[in-house]
Amino acid sequence: MNEYNNHFKEEVVTAEVEDIESMLLLNDKIYPKEWHVSPEYIKEIMLRNPEVYKIFKTPAGVKGIYGLFPLSKTDYTAVLEGRIEETEIGEYLLDYTNPTTVYLYLVTIIVDVDDVCRKEYASKIIKDIPLELKRLKEKGIDIKEIGAFAVSSEGERILPKIGFVHLREKLMLNDMEYPVFRAKPEDVVDKIKV
Description:
Blueprint: E1 11-14, H1 20-30, H2 39-48, E2 53-58, E3 61-71, H3 73-80, E4 101-111, H4 118-138, E5 142-149, H5 153-161, E6 165-173, E7 176-183, H6 185-191
Parallel strand pairs: 4-5
Antiparallel strand pairs: 1-2, 2-3, 3-4, 5-7, 6-7
Helix pairs in contact: 4-6
């Protein structure tokens, strides 16, 4: 039993501007320096679409994050082919104000790997993804596909387990090659048992 349960409800929630600092602390801990982003970048993303980042919050801060960025088919394809960089993606982000067709780019799934509860955090973050997909569908959002690329062996292992397939596509970033994964929303919902 977690010692905080009596005082603080730990759950996956939509990130808000006041969460940015804690999100970046976790992000910077996990990703190499060349992938670090500024608070302004995250804030710009949230202002364009406040529903794209989901976080697992604890009294000690953000312990897990995932982000689903809604894009047009053209922009989504450009991201997965490396023609639009993540630092530019905010310019192409769609919002959810009017029901629309989107392609979701899974920008990140991370948890605090140094925390003893990391497996619990990872489970909660992953189990929230189908709930978010269902929430968007109920809102009238037509999700055609979800795409991601794996930046670690852990990512390459997890993505197929949650409904993604690797069709031999690769993305070149900073002279490194990364496998591209794609999924239909229904496959992700079917694979992740909530």
